[in-house]
Amino acid sequence: MKFVIVFVALFALAYAAPAAPEAEIVELRSDVLPESYSFALKTSDGTSKDEEGHLENVGAENEHIVARGSYSFVADDGQTYTVTYIADENGFQPQGAHLPVAPEA
Question: What residue ranges do the domains of the chain occupy?
Answer without folding.
Answer: 22-95
